[in-house]
Amino acid sequence: MTIRHLRIFVAVATVGKMCDAADQLFLSQPTVSQAIKELEEHYEVLLFERLGKKLYITDAGEKLLKYAKNILTEFDNIEKRMLEMSSKKSLSIGATITIGNCILPYAINDIKEVYPDIHISSCISNTKVIEEKLLTSELDIAMIEGNISDPNLISIPFLKDSLVLACNSKHKLAKKEELTIEDLKNTNFVFREKGSGTRELFEDYIQKSKIPINVVLQSNCPGSIKNAILINNFASVISIRLIEEEILNGDITIFRCSKNLLDRTFKIVYHKDKFIDSVMNDFINILKNYEDSHRLDNLPSKKLLVFK
């Protein structure tokens, strides 16, 4: 028994004739007759009495008619609501904190140009939290700066980024033309929180060098990190994207790693079982077309961080 059977049955019961029901449904009369026969065999009841050329609905047919009308009404409502949902595009985007501040606002604007009525929800947090939300389907897609280890997540590189050592231009480190890793010994640092891709990359390197540094402040807020650099005279390792304006204004001095050891790539991440609809596919293509490394390469960088 299918929705099609019920729809044919209701039509026959309503018009009273197989031929009229067939015309109404744009079917052949044998097809309609066969559907009624299959229903009667399925439920092992007689749905219509056939007297001459007329059909008379039975008590069993009356009961089925009541149920069938309710079922068809609910089915039609489901169809209508689900089709409405498919026409209302939505996308749930996650971003790690650096990307959330530098890339996400522009990415949202770009996808809204393609889908003006789209509903966007977003979450900005560290790599660990975003990864968990992707695995529990709380997010459709994410942009991440850290490393992804879960095999259920697909990771696609899309944009280059550089971490730089940053300090107030009046900081003692800023007076040097060149730094070695030993120059960072006992320097006061403001760091991102545990679970951050930014912190993970720098910690991996600093632990290999066995140089002690003082982490006096942890924050997941780029604004508070910049204030700690500018006001509290702390150093930090931070994405060059987050301090572009301060570099251009001469407020912050940066040291680039000569061997590109602090370079990284932002990644598009989604669950391997995620259905990629047109919205998600267009969003991925938008991100893949981003390219601004030349602008960042030309930012003032008089100092050079040399790791030996």
From TrEMBL:
Q: Which PROSITE patterns match?
A: HTH_LYSR (PS50931)
Q: Which Pfam families match?
A: HTH_1 (PF00126), LysR_substrate (PF03466)
Residues covered by the HTH lysR-type domain: 1-58
InterPro entries in the cross-refs: LysR_HTH_N, LysR_subst-bd, WH-like_DNA-bd_sf, WH_DNA-bd_sf
Q: Name one GO molecular function term.
A: transcription cis-regulatory region binding
Coiled-coil region(s): none
The UniProt record lists the keyword Transcription regulation? yes
User: Which controlled-vocabulary keywords does the entry list?
Assistant: DNA-binding, Transcription, Transcription regulation
UniProt record similarity statement: Belongs to the LysR transcriptional regulatory family.
Q: Protein name, please?
A: LysR family transcriptional regulator
Q: Which organism is it from?
A: Anaerosalibacter bizertensis
